[in-house]
Amino acid sequence: MPAIGKIKIRLPRNIRKGQVIAVKTLIMHPMETGFRTDKKTKKKVPAYYINDVSVYYGDTLVNHSDWTIAVSANPFMTFYLKADKAAPLKIVWKDIKGGVYEKTVQVTPR
Amino acid sequence: MKRDDFSDSRRDFLKKAGLASAAVLSVTALSPVVSGGNLPLADWLGTGEARAAENRTTINDKLKTLYGDRRIEMSHVTMKTPIIAENGAVVPVEVSADLPMDPDNYVKKITIFVDNNLDPYIASTELTPASGRAALALRIKMRKTSPVRAVVETSKGKLYGATNNVKVTIGGCGG
Lengths: 110, 175
Prior knowledge:
Number of strands of chain A: 7
Number of helices of chain B: 5
CATH class of chain A: Mainly Beta
Largest interface: A-B, 30 and 34 residues
Largest sheet of chain A: 4 strands, antiparallel
CATH superfamily of chain A: Immunoglobulins
CATH class of the largest domain in chain B: Mainly Beta
Helix content of chain B: 25-40%
CATH topology of chain A: Immunoglobulin-like
Order of helices and strands of chain A: EEEEEEE
Shape of chain A: elongated
CATH architecture of the largest domain in chain B: Sandwich
Radius of gyration of chain B: 24 Å
Oligomer: heterodimer
Radius of gyration of chain A: 16 Å
CATH topology of the largest domain in chain B: Immunoglobulin-like
Number of domains of chain A: 1
CATH superfamily of the largest domain in chain B: SoxY domain
Distance between the termini of chain B: 43 Å
Number of helices of chain A: 0
Structural class of chain B: alpha+beta
Strand order of the largest sheet of chain A: 4-3-6-7
């Protein structure tokens, strides 16, 4: 699988102070269920998926997700955030093999 | 079968057998309620499917273990899903609730379920008042056509829910 853990985060271009904004996030990850069989080797592909996602805005936790195998490959999630301060927005994904992927973007409301 | 069937030629025997099975089939077709209604589920599904059906947790069990006997009110929550999902591996689901997000009364958790997946529990997200709005969008996998459910829990312990049916043309759990 190429580029596991490649992340894209999209924020609205103009953010007013106190506005509730939608944050769109995408991370490249195979999200293997453990049910799929490899066509060449005829073996089951072991489960490999993200099970824990946390979002921090400055020091406060905005949301925390618990995922299972039934979240699509290359998970795309949209959540909402009240932009009431200029602070970094940090998103952390963790998978079951111990992989930790994180990205920080700056939120600067005007 | 009568005993003199054994003396019949092979051809005659096959003819009779064919007629007999046709008769059985027509009876089944004419009165599906009477003949089909009391067959156990395992006989209808193939053995593999039946085994999977035995092993999987049902949506009712899952809801019971998570929420006990608390009532889930079917209001305040709206869910946006496609009516027909061509690809079960990527089904966009949007859940939103018109509930307040005040520091003392907010939506604590949004959980998504799909009845006919092997594990009906898909994902849950704990929200805080910093979210500003009780809404979430996620792409999920669906094995086959099934109701999709969203349950929203508030910090005061109230439960709200919504259900949408999604028709899946190609399943998305591999295997």
